[in-house]
Amino acid sequence: MIVVHGGAGLVTPDRHERLRAGVRAAVAAAHALLARGAGALDAAVAAVRRLEDDPELGAGLGSALTRDGTVETCASVMDGATRRTGAVAAVPDLAAPVVVARAMLERGEHVLLAGQAAARFATEIGLPPAAPGALVTARAHEQLREWHARAGAPGPGGEGGGVGAVVRDAAGNFAAATSTGGAIYRRAGSVDDSAVPGVGTWADGNLAVSTSGGEAAFRVALAHNIARRVADGESLRAAAKDVLIELRKVAPDTVAGAIMVGKNSWAALQLGPTMPVAWLDSAGPGDAIGFAL
Questions:
Q1: What is the DSSP string of the chain?
Q2: CA 72 to CA 84: how far, in whole Å?
């Protein structure tokens, strides 16, 4: 079972089909690995890598720009069978942060590296950052220009940000992966929720969760809070609904969402107008522009 998301937020209708195509392609990439016998973690990372290379989405090549006009990326991964996790944060010009986060998990030396230290680690494993400006798209420039035109006031709902994948493999193991280029006009060096296990990413023996929510997600430990409620007996959708309502109470203007896969079902839910989602389950593939609360 595979579910992927393309970030909660507001996107114009002319982009909806491109976003749906992007999340469908990510599911296909994950399924191709599962069909060859790969595990959940390999499949989740493959899905997110496909999303990071899609300029329509808010990670890797599609990253939003900092107030310095630069790209800094974040990602985290978690293996439910072992509870091992790895993450990188605020890495300049890193196109594939999810792969570096996976390497962090495998090395087991640290959980999270940030900034230039993470860039050096990426170079050590053969994934050096791109040249400055290479990940900057025309859409990212336009987002920053619009931000300045509004004198720094965010637009209604904001652009969809971050991407993620959750997978249950044939052995019943779970994994989650989440990646982002962060929020428009953030300070350089800021650590996004996507880089923090328990906030942007969670996997254990019962489920896997990937979220989209920006810094407000820290206030409710979004991913782990959902997992805790499921462990206490709530359904996936009920757990996500309760936590998103809690988040809305403490941060009324936030836009956020989550995807989850459990032992027998999956769910997706968001605060806000859209969160592109695609999935593959026993009934076959599907996709949607979102499942609003």
A1: -EEEE--BB---GGGHHHHHHHHHHHHHHHHHHHHTT--HHHHHHHHHHHHHT-TTSSSGGGPPP-TTS--EEEEEEEETTTTEEEEEEEEET-S-HHHHHHHHHHH-S-SEEEHHHHHHHHHHTT-PPPPTTTT--HHHHHHHHHHHHTTTPPPSS---B-EEEEEE-TTS-EEEEEEE---TTPPTTPPPGGGSBTTTEEE-SSEEEEEE-GGGGGGGTHHHHHHHHHHTT--HHHHHHHHHHHHHHHSTT--EEEEEEESS-EEEEEESSB--EEEEETTEEEEES--B-
A2: 24
Measure the CA–CA gap between 6 and 274, rounded to whole angstroms: 9
161 lies in some domain: yes
Which tens digit of pLDDT belongs to each residue from 270-292? 999 999 999 999 999 999 999 99
Number of domains in the chain: 1
Identify the CATH number of the domain in which residue 250 sits.
3.60.20.30
State the pLDDT confidence band at 188, using cuts at 50, 70 and 90.
very high
- Report the share of the chain in percent with pLDDT over 90: 87
Residue 121's domain spans which residues? 2-288
Q: What is the phi/psi pair of residue 289, to 5°?
A: -85, -5
Confidence of residue 161 (pLDDT cuts 50, 70, 90): confident
| pTM score, whole prediction | 0.95
Radius of gyration of the chain (CA): 17
In a domain, 293, yes or no: no
Residue 138: inside a domain: yes
CA–CA dist 16, 135 (Å, integer): 22
